[in-house]
Amino acid sequence: MIEAKSDPTRWWNGLRFRLVFMMSLALLPIGLIAVMQTRAVSEKVRRNTELALLAEIEQVAYRERLNIQRAFGVADSVAALVGTFQEDPDTCSARLMSIMEQSDRFSFLGIIPSSGVMTCSTAGATEQLTSRPRFQQLVGSKERLVRVVPDAPISGGPVINVSIPLFDADKVVGRVSVSIPHSPPVPMSDRSKNDAFKSNALVEVLTFNDTGEILSSLGERDQLTALLPQGLTPANLTEHRARAFSTLDRKGNDRIYTVVPVEADQLYILGIWDAQTGVEEQSGDRLPPILFPALMWLTSLAVVLFAIHRLVSRHVRSLRRQMVRFARDRKVSEKASGSRDMPAELHEIQTSFNNMAYSIIRDEATLEDAVHEKNVLIREIHHRVKNNLQLISSILNMQIRDAQSDETRSVLRRVQDRVLSLATIHRDLYQANSAGRVNVGNLLKEIVQKSVEIGAETATAVRVETDIDDVHLYPDQAVPMSLLAAEAATNAMKYVDAREGTDPWIRVTFKACEDKTCVFRFENSARVNETAGSTGMGARLINAFAIQLGATIEVESSDEAYTLTVTFTAADFSDEG
Hints:
Blueprint: H1 15-85, H2 89-101, E1 108-113, E2 117-118, E3 120-121, E4 127-128, H3 135-139, E5 145-152, E6 157-168, E7 171-181, E8 202-209, E9 214-217, H4 224-227, E10 243-248, E11 254-263, E12 267-274, H5 275-283, H6 291-329, H7 344-402, H8 406-431, E13 438-439, H9 440-455, E14 463-468, E15 472-473, H10 475-495, E16 505-512, E17 517-525, H11 537-549, E18 552-557, E19 561-569
Parallel strand pairs: 14-16
Antiparallel strand pairs: 1-3, 1-7, 2-4, 5-6, 6-7, 8-9, 8-12, 10-11, 11-12, 13-15, 16-17, 17-19, 18-19
Helix pairs in contact: 1-2, 1-5, 1-6, 6-7, 7-8, 8-10, 9-10, 10-11
């Protein structure tokens, strides 16, 4: 089973990515601490924003409390003087009117008797109050009361009504009532001109009573519900202390709510603020705190990448270019760029590579010289052997001419054919430039041609057909193959014949398959009793040569043709030394 290997050229296998990844892991604890600190800073900024906005609502509530205290002061003054002018309603009303005209803060002053018939007031007429809501509860109370009246009939609008009891001995005989006009702290149309609120984050300011009833607001009443906090109503916000909190409104917007009691259990002011604007105003022009850990991480990575490039990457790339150039052109740069400031470890690698490259170049030069010298010697040997064999062939030719009997000449001629075959092989080895291999196809063509020329007197009448491929073999197989073909051709020319009316023929085929299997087939027309008088020497030689080839032989003989098929596998070069 072959295991899948990671491709080293993928970007995530690069040095930069790995160092960035490891640096990110190293910075992770510091980053988490920075994020936690940033979160704490953000929470602190938000809390400071809430307190700052609460302080603005406190200032508004303080002004309202001051007006209420002044109203109580006026009520106490009227209660102290009530006995001197109460008997005369006109004088009493005029006196109250003169008090109210001294300040524009009040819209009504009056003395309410227990009977409910008010004759002394700034209303200018007698008022019957017994039918008014909460009248009996009001005149029977011994407490100093502050209540908000959304629609006061005498003042003609919403007022804050302040009243104190009048006593005769320990009995309550009436109340002194002072009304203060009540309106939103900042009119919506004048918000840009009014400096009551310093923050631009204000969305809405409204007042409500202890039952949660909204008394006044800056905007339209039908839009107030969407601005209220999710899951809360004004009645849930009635507490004796001021507070600020952040939550979402009923539309899902982030809001800051500030609640301040103007008068406990009576009147409250609720400020609604846009949280994002408020926080931005509180933090000023500072960048968001979350940018700090991000900038720290990016800065660290930039330093790491610069250090990698300066100390490692550019030197590694330079070394890689040198290796590629050496592998392609076998050239070594004398001085690599940036080698002066190269770290010691990489400089050692650079030096080792240069030494290795020079050593390889020297070894290759030595090896090339040795191979060249060996080739020269081998070619010289083949050349000398070829010359010697040709000399032997010449001597045999002289012996053939001097021979007296035909049998002697025939034997010598066959020996000469074999010698010439060997000379032809050595000639091709001498001339070959293909790593010592011989084109056996060319040899076979030449051997067949010469065998036909010198084989017999009838050779000119023999029809020769060849289908021979170019097959390159090493000498260990080329020599026996050529000799085998020469013996087959000699035997064929010796016994070739045909029936009357036809010409004798020889057909030679030599093919190489893709699996290195080679097939040699030699066919010739034959006459009946073609082996009569044969010594069998050719057949024995063919078998001997086939053994050297490691081949198998198949012989098919009929009255019309003789076929020899030799099959063997082309061998690879093997060093027997």
